[in-house]
Amino acid sequence: MSRSVRCGLIQAHNSLGPDHGLTQIKKAMIDKHLKLIEQAAKQQVEVLCLQELFYGPYFCAEQDQKWYEMTERVPDGPTTKLMQKVAAKHKMVIVVPVYEEEMTGLYFNTAAVIDADGQYLGKYRKHHIPQVAPGFWEKFYFTPGDTGYPVFQTRYAKVGVYICYDRHFPEGARILGLNGAEVVFNPSATVAGLSEYLWELEQPAHAVANGYFVGAINRVGVEKPWAIGEFYGKSYFCNPRGKIIAQASRDKDEVVVADLNFDMIAEVRKTWQFFRDRRPDSYEPLVAQAGKTTGAGK
Questions:
Q1: Among residues 31, 183, 211, which one has the least CA distance to residue 93?
Q2: Which of 52, 182, 202, 254 is catalytic?
């Protein structure tokens, strides 16, 4: 008997610009997502992931301390608590990306993972923090993650999380596979003209190299007044063979739904024995600083 899990992704425009109060901005996006989660529930989604920093704009387009007020504790903050109730109501696993405050002045780009009974399972903190001009000033807001690369045993699947810029680094993607992930979600905020050419390249490659499913999420629209580019949506699921099996539009709020047949993981790994044929004894240069690697050919 095949093991299939219905999974979903939500991509959405930001509702209110920074000329509104932070409380209004946050409430508008949470209200929008509650409606989209209802849509996912009507489609019987069992595992759902929201977009990066889902309850506001991509404020990293500027460097302004006011955005520190968007932080919350995890799991004790109001958004995680709310989503625990929503998850229990719909018997749905939900991955909830938020701006986390560990303590005053120590902030992370975080995703909370909530099981289908509303239980908080843990969190992933984004490891790789970009500082890319123009408009991606993330080191101003986030401390590099310190959680490692956990995989969460949920009611329906073993879930891993990678966040946005992380996707450019194959090392963590491999660790998620070694830790047993069946599906890895990557909530993102990325614009046309910067990395769109990589959008349908890197993550299918992670899926192939590690034999798991990937759910990639991108927000949509141009967020004013910054206008750093168009968030081009195109959220998708791909399978362990790297094939995109469901994809959203470029410019609409949307719930992407796909039935993931986890039996395919074993089928693919029996053919491609990448975990068997790894050579970790030869990978020491991967953890060396640039310019200090050893074993160069003569």
A1: 183
A2: 52
